[in-house]
Design brief:
FAD/NAD(P)-binding domain; D-Amino Acid Oxidase, Chain A, domain 2; 2 domains; 11 helices; binds flavin-adenine dinucleotide
Length: 420
């Protein structure tokens, strides 16, 4: 069984995305000696270009029946909100079967409860970490707006909103006038909206993750840029990692937080985790010249608008099921431009850039947070899917508690690796 560490022992965290960085910082604050490893610069993969939302109201798992009903329509349009590279279907099939299994109503109810348990504490866990890291200036606590074209579209979404309310999410329906009071720019097409006041965002998720990383270094953490090839075992315990250039590095425990690439380390220990990439795209418009106050979601088109500094915008979203190394289809990014113009009107595309990232997704939408039960000293924090930024601090607090031998304030069974 995984054992608690003594104060001050050394821990290696593999993967400097937002999840690994938050864990490294939290462990350092708990007094452990922490080495964070990444084959690249910190926060340059999926955590670089996400939409910056602390999406505390996304408590319903992705495989809920309402979403599944829309899938056939979406799949007919290669540039729709969801696309599948058909050649990848045979590889993806086991993940898809598990995804379908997660859509049974009783399963959706359980998963909603388990996701709510994590999301309900995000703001508290982040408040503490953000304060310690001195990043309060990047955290915009303005709530979000989910837009609907008309009452009919809103009514179709209402059961999901009511379910969210039953799980503790506070929200408010807004008329067109109330919407305009909050965001005067919004086009006539959008007649109503829902606001979740406790939703928040950061202007730039890369700067935010990098800020957490800088705090980790300031607190005495060590960063090593190298590829980890495997974990090391001695006397039945994980005792470090084998790296490409720095040889063997030893520690009392190793945490794998490699996003979509974490499966390599699971396989090394004969675990099979159904981790796949839900690829997503963004378009960055640093000189859009559009002043928005709120994070905007367009539910029917499955994309979001993040207000960035100085009138800049980031348009992000859509899901593409394809191998993580397949060439990007940049059309999926460019279609976001027209969709956004229908919401905020025209904007400048000067300085525009596009990006694609790999959401590390498990078919039941819950992350893995915990020990590899048969391998003492080895821990995993992965599979955060659409919610990696949102759940990074909470993951870090829970994992840190477990490594210290404290009983987490949450039942961790739903997030264990051995559920697969
Ligand atoms: C378009 C888009 C929009 C999104 N919007 C949001 C949002 O608004 N809110 C939200 O909460 N989430 C959002 N997400 C999801 C979020 O970005 C991810 O869940 C999160 O970034 C995952 O973080 P991570 O640390 O697990 O993985 P990553 O950021 O991918 O980091 C993994 C790290 O592991 C390193 N690594 C891998 N293998 C090795 C190895 N062998 N040795 C050394 N290092 C290794 C990689 O170099 C990488 O730096 C979005 C994602 C996308 C694509």
């Amino acid at each position: 069984m995984a054992q608690a560490l003594a104060p001050g022992e050394n821990v290696i965290v593999v993967g400097a995305g937002v999840v690994g960085i938050a864990i490294a910082l939290q462990l350092r604050l708990a007094g452990f000696g922490v080495t964070l490893l990444d084959r690249g610069e910190p926060a340059m993969e999926t955590s670089y270009g996400n939409a910056g939302a602390f999406a505390i109201s996304d408590v319903i798992p992705l495989a809920e029946p309402g979403v599944l009903r829309k899938v056939p329509g979406w799949m007919l349009d290669p540039l729709g909100p969801l696309a599948l590279r058909w050649r990848y279907l045979p590889t993806l099939a086991p993940w898809l079967l598990r995804f379908l299994a997660a859509s049974r109503p009783s399963r959706v109810a359980t998963l909603t409860r388990d996701l709510s348990a994590l999301l309900g504490r995000v703001n508290t866990d982040y408040a503490a970490l953000i304060e310690r890291a001195g990043l309060a200036h990047l955290w915009r606590r303005h709530g979000n707006l989910t837009l609907y074209r008309n009452q009919q579209e809103f009514d179709a979404a209402l059961p999901a909103w009511e379910e969210k309310r039953r799980h503790g999410v506070q929200w408010q329906a807004l008329s067109r006038n109330e919407l305009l009071e909050r965001e005067p720019l919004l086009a006539e097409e959008w007649q109503c909206a829902v606001q979740v006041p406790a939703w928040s965002h950061v202007d730039d998720p890369y700067l935010f993750s990098r800020g957490l990383f800088d705090a980790f270094i300031r607190e005495g953490g060590r960063f090593v840029q190298d590829e980890v090839l495997a974990t090391l075992q001695q006397d039945g315990r994980t005792c470090g990692v084998e790296t490409a250039s720095h040889g063997q590095l030893h520690a009392a425990a190793v945490v794998i937080a490699c996003g979509v690439w974490s499966d390599r380390f699971a396989r090394q220990h004969q675990y099979r985790i159904p981790l796949e990439s839900e690829r997503g795209y963004h378009v960055n418009l640093p000189m859009a010249g559009v002043k928005l106050h709120h994070f905007i979601q367009c539910a029917s088109e499955s994309f979001v608008i993040l207000p960035m500094a100085n009138g800049g915008l980031r348009l992000a979203g859509t899901v593409e099921l394809a191998h993580r190394d397949a060439a990007p289809d940049w059309r999926r990014a460019h279609i976001l431009l027209d969709k956004a113009r229908r919401i905020v009107g025209d904007f400048s595309t000067e300085g525009m850039t596009v990006w694609m990232g790999n959401r590390p997704s498990l078919p039941d939408t819950l992350p893995i947070i915990g020990s590899a039960q048969q391998q003492p000293g080895l821990w995993f924090a992965t599979g955060h899917g659409h919610l990696g930024l949102t759940l990074a601090a909470t993951t870090a607090v829970l994992l840190s508690d477990m490594l210290q031998g404290k009983t987490p304030t949450l039942d961790m069974q739903p997030y264990r690796m051995s559920r697969f």
